[in-house]
Write a structure and sequence with these properties.
Layout (H helix, E strand, L loop, with lengths): L1 H9 L16 H5 L4 H6 L1 H15 L3 E3 L6 H5 L4 E2 L7 E2 L24 H15 L4 E7 L1 H9 L2 H8 L1 H24 L4 E5 L8 H21 L3 E5 L8 H5 L5 E3 L6 H10 L3 E6 L1 H6 L3 H13 L6 E5 L9 H12 L1 H7 L24 E6 L6 H17 L4 E6 L3 H10 L6 E4 L2 E5 L5 H9 L3
């Protein structure tokens, strides 16, 4: 059974098969014709959509909800809703004041959308939980702290380290409360999803943030449960410090070389999950593209302590057949290998004209993102650029290019962008997968005046 396979792999036991976990968040709604908001506020629509995921994609494990704004909304953040994405955080209640975290409450089972989520968790547990491992996903301490404080939090890391530690500790306690609620509702795995970890240096993580993550993962283990640490972006340099926080599993996206990252997680006997590309392969590719990626990955990586999954939350309108193809390649690898023998993907032939950077009369900030509407790290990279726009006004131009748009993918490739998010000024890479502080960015822009 799929659940047994997942639990064995997460407990680092030897298995003859490799588990498959599709991270179908709002994509679940797409399968039943529901909008993203429908499945994030309506228990019945979410439940029937998850059953469709289970039927079509035959998962060994699956999340119930993939929404990193549930806790933020309860704690005072206003959200902007979309039809085909999870909501994004629009306001940050601590943006103008460093609120004392010791004065703040923790969520309870009656707050916000938690009752809806717990209801669906219990229903899914009864329907498929005997054979399928169910994941309860929570917003990790760093991303939650950034939701509350906004982009100021990255400046705080330099100017107010004691406050950063206090707010991270509070957010870790929120994580613990959410984990307890989800475990009581029958979840088998608690996923701590923190995209922003890839955006801070390993030394900053160790000095200011790690203690909060250790607190969460140790609590989950003491409860007799299993944890997974989800990160987005190029977390290559953070792999070791993530392992040091004691998760049972780490999940990464396409920005990380899974084969190389596994060499690090293997040293800690930690399971690793990932990392089928979300856009180029799952969204814009075809069935053979998806099968070939999985087959090639499995041919180049050791199979112990391994889960195959999309790199992160699946885009809303991924073609159903592409996910089915990925699942087939995991479960029927030899058949898939024969089907893609000799196959080579063909790149889109899109002509992109780059600006004449040498002729610019003022700084042009180009922010290359997965999509700032759905990727928290991208949201705060773009927010940093928009702070500069607010400060310098018409003396600075800002543009975002998203990896969810074909033309923008072609531009990203032509520019040679290696990691997302990245920030360029007048065609020169300035920050790659690290969010600059306000001071750092402003000082850099002044060099162009």
């Amino acid at each position: 059974m799929g659940k047994d396979l997942i639990m064995k792999v997460l407990r680092h036991e030897k298995c003859d098969e490799i588990p498959w976990v599709p991270f179908a968040g709002v994509h679940a709604g797409f399968l039943k014709g529901h909008t993203a908001k429908d499945v994030l506020v309506d228990a019945d629509k979410l439940y029937e959509s998850l059953l469709e995921v289970h039927k079509l994609y035959t998962p060994d494990g699956m999340p119930i909800v993939f929404d990193l704004q549930i806790e933020a909304e309860i704690l005072g953040c206003d959200l902007m809703w979309a039809e085909d994405n999870p909501p994004s955080v629009m306001t940050h209640p601590f943006e103008d004041e460093m609120v004392d975290p010791s004065t703040l409450k923790l969520p309870d089972a009656k707050d916000g959308r938690i009752p809806m989520v717990l209801d669906v968790m219990r229903r899914m547990k009864a329907a498929v939980g005997e054979n399928t491992a169910l994941y309860g996903l929570i917003c990790g301490p760093l991303t939650l702290a950034s939701h509350l404080r906004g982009s100021e939090f990255f400046t705080d890391m330099f100017d107010e380290p004691e406050y950063v530690e206090a707010l991270i500790d509070y957010c870790a306690n929120v994580n613990i409360r959410m984990a307890d609620l989800y475990l009581e509702a029958g979840m088998d795995v608690i996923g701590v999803v923190d995209p922003l970890v890839s955006q801070v240096s390993p030394s900053t993580f160790e000095e200011l943030l790690a203690k909060g993550f250790v607190k969460v993962f140790d609590h989950i283990r003491k409860k007799g449960s299993i944890s997974s640490f989800f990160v987005c972006g190029n977390a290559t340099q953070q792999m070791k410090v993530m392992c040091d926080t004691h998760p049972d599993c780490i999940s990464v996206d396409e920005n990380v070389d899974l084969v190389e990252a596994k060499k690090i997680t293997d040293q800690y006997n930690i399971t690793i999950g990932g990392n089928i590309p979300l856009t180029t392969t799952m969204l814009f590719g075809n069935q053979k593209d998806n099968m070939k990626f999985v087959v090639d990955l499995l041919d180049n990586i050791t199979h112990d302590n391994l889960i195959i999954s999309p790199g992160c939350d699946m885009p809303y309108n991924i073609p159903t057949e592409n996910t089915i193809a990925a699942a087939f390649a995991v479960k029927q690898t030899e058949s898939a290998r024969n089907m893609v023998a000799g196959y080579e993907a063909v790149d889109d032939d899109i002509e992109i004209e780059l600006p004449d950077y040498s002729a610019l009369t003022k700084p042009l900030i180009e922010v290359f993102t997965l999509d700032s509407a759905t990727c928290a790290a991208c949201t705060y990279m773009l927010a940093s650029a928009m702070q500069a726009k607010q400060e310098f006004g018409d003396d600075v131009d800002v543009v975002e290019y998203k990896y969810t748009i074909r033309e923008d993918i072609a531009r990203i490739k032509k520019m040679g962008v290696k990691q997302l998010p990245s920030l360029y000024i007048n065609g020169e890479l300035k920050w790659s997968s690290i969010i600059p502080s306000r001071t750092e960015l402003f000082d850099e822009l002044k060099k162009y005046q």
